[in-house]
Amino acid sequence: MSRRIDVSDLDIYYGSFLAVEGVSMAIEPRSVTALIGPSGCGKSTFLRSLNRMHEVIPGARVDGKVVLDGQDLYGSDMDPVDVRRNIGMVFQRPNPFPTMSIAENVLAGMRLNNKRLKRSEADDLVERALQGANLWNEVKDRLDRPGAGLSGGQQQRLCIARAIAVQPQVLLMDEPCSALDPISTLAIEDLMVELKKDYTIVIVTHNMQQASRVSDRTAFFNIAGTGKPGKLIEMDATETIFSTPSVKATEDYVSGRFG
């Protein structure tokens, strides 16, 4: 599987409001793509459209195409549940299920998909997912304790373990470090670099240093004014976006002159 995402002429609506307009981009497989831009420019809406999570809001719809490995994710034959199984999501604030143990949190996605696992298979999956999220050594002796009892950074890595346990092709991360301290942030950033060996990762971040540290390509979104749709202004190799962008608005944003 190449795990490449091709987006073509994507418009995203909430009811009659056009939130994001005319986005076309290629998201390369086994890489980290960062989405940056000022608040309200549609980057999180665009991110959620990649696995149809925005559809939980009534009246949400899209025009255009999102294609993963040749499959149109908005095709009439596509089940949104299958889309979300293939394209996992990690949210801004860590959200482990509070009444579940660490191990049960990891297995939650499999159980939601009605996957029946033998005890040995479940144990192997828990260890593999927690190893993948670089959390195993910290929690292996307390897997039956509540996931909510972990620190914020550990909770976020537990959520990443939960996401990768169902073996998605793509991981979406919506500001995954914004609620974390600098040490936990560094741990998540290191983890992203490791995970891109196996996953295609798309991250929304307001942190320019984070985008420059972890991403291979960066897409800058902007908005023309209140009530106007967000648009993709420029996308390129991260080094280019931060050193020699083609558009002045991009340069102003990454240098801190606005936004």
Automatic annotation (TrEMBL):
Residues 5-248 form the ABC transporter domain. CDD domains: ABC_PstB_phosphate_transporter. It comes from the Bacteria. Keywords: ATP-binding, Nucleotide-binding, Translocase, Transport. PROSITE patterns: ABC_TRANSPORTER_1, ABC_TRANSPORTER_2. GO terms for molecular function: ATP binding; ATP hydrolysis activity; phosphate transmembrane transporter activity. GO terms for cellular component: membrane. Pfam families: ABC_tran. The keyword Translocase applies. InterPro entries: AAA+_ATPase, ABC_transporter-like_ATP-bd, ABC_transporter-like_CS, P-loop_NTPase, PstB-like. GO terms for biological process: phosphate ion transmembrane transport. This is Phosphate ABC transporter ATP-binding protein (PhoT family).
